Each structure stands twice: as structure tokens, then as C-alpha cells.
Amino acid sequence: MASPMDAITAIHNAFRRDLAGIDAAALGSARDKSGLSETTERYRFFNEVLVWHANGEELAIFPLLENVAPSVAEAYIMDHRGLDAAFDALDSSVSARDSLETARATAAFKFHLDIHLAKEDAHLYRLIRERVSVPDQGKALGLMASTVPSERFPEFIAWIFPLLGQDDRENMTRIWQTVMPAQVFAGVIQLVRKAVDDDWPELARRIPELAT
What we know:
Layout: H1 4-32, H2 38-41, H3 43-68, H4 73-95, H5 99-131, H6 134-145, H7 153-160, H8 166-179, H9 182-196, H10 200-206
């Protein structure tokens, strides 16, 4: 059965995959001097999602961690401020239409984020899984999700599900099915169906009740 923290793992995997694509596009633009690509410009929405995620962690996850592992979250908050600075450098480079500086800034952003997510997966969320009850994890996940503006949730679904593998899609869907009111989930799953497109039959096979 999916754990509430599996949803965080899925989000982290989406961040990794999307930023890898943005980084590759930035490098390609710097090499052929053809200008910044549409893929690179996608970084602005990527960062919006990253800010929602970081705010959610600071609102819901870090206080929960403080109860079971005092002072551990302090270093992760420092990482968040570092990511803010990395984004500012990237934003300045793109605004200046400087493809070389954009590639440098994107690589630095990716390097920092990759390390941060790896530390969270291996350390922070391991502590949450081991020391916090599943019901409390679920409550924290719900509070964390509240940082995504409701009117932007369709954009979030359209962004994340194409970036996920089948296991992450299944886990995310099962968790939402558990924590969302039935009426809300019924609307959300239609957005998921649109986002996964031709892969919907596989998701429905894994979660048979979606087909009913």
C-alpha cells in the first residue's frame, strides 16, 4: 500500500526529470547559439511548483520533523534559501537573453537541487517514515498540498503526471484517492486521465476502481 510520503517521492522524481530536460535545452542553446528554447523558458513554472513544494515542507513537514528529530530541518531550510538564490541567478540570465550564462545558471541550479532532493529522500523523509505515524503523515501531506493555489491545481496535474513513471503515477493516484473527498477526487481523476493520455489504460489496470 502506498505511504503518504510516496507522494513526496513522486514529486521529487518529477523535479529531477523536468530539470534535467531544462538543463539539456539550456546547454543546447549555448552550444548552437540559436537562442533560448521553449523548454528552457519552462523553468518559470517549474520554479513556481518548487516554491509551492518548499513552502509546504516548511509549513507542514519541518515542524513535524522537529518533534521527532530536533534541529534537523535547519539545514534543509538553508538549502531552500540557496535554491531561491540559484533561481534568481537563472532568472536574471534568461531575462538578459544570455544563453551561456543561462546554461551555467541552470547547471548550478540542477546541481544544488539534485543534492538537496537526494538528502531529503535519504535522510529527512526516512526519519518521517520511521518516526511519525501514518495518520500524522497523511495530515501533513494534506496541509502541504494546501500551498498549491486551488485554481492552479489543473496546471500542476498537467505538469507532473507526464513526468512520472507508472509506479509513481499509481502511488500518487492512490494517495489522492485516500485523502481527497470522493467528489473532489472524481474531478481530479479526469484531469489525470487527460494528462496521461494514451497511458490511461495502464493506470486503470493498476487501479481497477478507476474504470468503474
